[in-house]
## 1
Amino acid sequence: MPVLELTTLIPHRTPTEVLDFCLEGANFPKIFPERITPLGDVDLNDLRIEAGRQFRFRHWMFNFIPSNWTVVIREVGDVHFVDEMLKGPMRAFRHEHRVAVGEGGTLYTDRVTYSAIGGALSEAVLVNGYMRRIFAARHLNMLRLLA
């Protein structure tokens, strides 16, 4: 399975501040570079990420292709949390969010392990580049919102 890992230094913020920002559901669509629509009874303004919590959303790929996701929060700790796709457009998707002390701020790391429907060919042709673009944009948005 492909693994994408990206780390960004967020200056002048503590690991606790960065993780708290990520754990607030209202910040999810602010970080994500494409449109996100909650599904069901999810209110992102009243969503705190907690272990065991499940929620559904529609991710508008390229801002016009609807893709429904059901995710569960597998773990939440002092320096990380992990979400995993239960149902959606991928064969498998696990996303680890980690924070650590960095020089002058906090190192924020996304580590995504995934498997695309269509296998290695689909990953090479479309998915790997898309994932790199999405997560690079997420990190720029984190910097913009927290720096």
## 2
Amino acid sequence: MIQQRGNFDWMLKQLADGVPGVEMIVVLSADGLRIARHGGDPDAADRLAAACAGVQSLAGAVAQELPISNGDMNLVLIEIDRGYFYLMSAGANAYLAVLADVTCEPGRMSEMMRDLVVRIGAHLTSPPRRNGQTV
């Protein structure tokens, strides 16, 4: 799990402050459990984390169909009505998700997310689980 969560929270806030239009940021495990969030309410963050598990699985399956790909999902960007959804691989078994409105510039957001992942990637890991227990 994430260590030094207080320090991690300010980094999520820094991402939100660095790009206009951010509504919610969620860090999640590969199995869809919320690790941390900034913005939004906890229930919405939990629902987003659960949905992201399916999105990352789908993206990984699609990536495996490209012969030159290693099958890993790096970044998913979905334009939604009046906004954007971003999902980025952020370490072993961890992902960074962002919901933003239309004022958000997609290129800037993906750049800021990559910078955040590089800076704190070692803290954005979640141990694998089996039957709800850490392995």
